[in-house]
């Protein structure tokens, strides 16, 4: 299972509807299942990013389709990072030769 970390900023539209942010988070979790993606963790943060989401997916295409669908709603813009466990990184390093 691949892990992704989405560093998310609220758009002006998302900020105007900030009181609905926890309800939208529930909708995001439900939508994730339709893409075969799991929202493992979701945090509201202070600083450069407003929300940080940890996502797990069997494949990158499903994770990407999910992320694009969320952005299309217009409330957020995200920078998504592929994250690796220690075991996965060990596999990567072993392939270096």
Automatic annotation (TrEMBL):
Highest taxon of source: Bacteria
Annotated Pfam families: GYD (PF08734)
UniProt xrefs under InterPro entries: GYD/TTHA1554
Protein name per UniProt: GYD domain-containing protein
Source organism (scientific name): Dyella solisilvae
Lineage: Bacteria, Pseudomonadati, Pseudomonadota, Gammaproteobacteria, Lysobacterales
């Amino acid at each position: 299972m691949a892990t992704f970390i989405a560093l998310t900023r609220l758009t002006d539209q998302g900020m105007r509807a900030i009181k609905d942010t926890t309800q939208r988070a529930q909708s995001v979790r439900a939508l994730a299942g339709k893409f075969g993606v799991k929202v493992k963790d979701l945090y509201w943060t202070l600083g450069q990013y407003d929300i940080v989401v940890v996502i797990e997916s069997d494949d990158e295409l499903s994770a990407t389709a999910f992320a694009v669908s969320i952005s299309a709603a217009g409330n957020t813009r995200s920078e998504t990072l592929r994250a690796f466990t220690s075991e996965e990184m060990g596999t990567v390093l072993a392939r270096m030769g």
